[in-house]
Amino acid sequence: MQIGACWFNAQEQVLVDAASGRSWLLSADEFQALSLLSAQRGKVVSRMELLQSITPHLKLSMRADDLLNSTIRRLRLFLGDEAAHLLVSVANQGFILYATPRKHPRTVLNSPLFKLSMPQFMLLTLMTLAMLLWVGSHITHPTSIAPNYAKQLPTHDGHYSEIQFYTGQPSDHSMWPLVDHFVEQVSSCSVFPWQSIAATISTDQRFVSLVLKSKDADGLNFETIKMMSENFNADVIDELWLKRVGICA
Prior knowledge:
This protein has 249 residues and is of the alpha+beta class. The protein is 34% helix and 25% strand.
């Protein structure tokens, strides 16, 4: 049986290179695998079938799988330079043996002789630029969000600190009493060590998140305070609480 440039003599279990005259006496595993592949030339032979033919005495294991892989490698070595196109692996399935080499057709773009003409190059460039412009036009750029309320407070060192409130409701003034109360209490601090306070208030006024920012010789420092209460005005925000959480020094 002709397989590429080799002749497979099944009776003598020999594979002969017709060009060089070199021959290989196949081992039992090599012979069983090549016989099974030859009997189903042009069709996928599963790894399971091959394993059962060459390792009937071994249970399916890593050892049996390694034995099959080494058997296929030796057969490809015997088949010579055309082996990659004669004995082909099929991912997650098995192997196919062809009588003659089956080379994959070369596409235009991966051909080493392929060259773009100037009109083709310009067209490709314009299409790329158009795609980039289209993608750029659909990207949402970040926008800054203005606070609903902002006030500057003088500090003990003669500078000013800023308090900003974000309520998420641009036209809702129902939170202003809470904001005014907080600013009034902070204004009474004898020492206010923060450059700024950014506060976010939930729409039901039960949750407040504060981000405190200061700067020293080591750089910027941040502290975060999260609060929950049914009534911030009466229950939480007073001078004692401001000192306890570190807003007032």
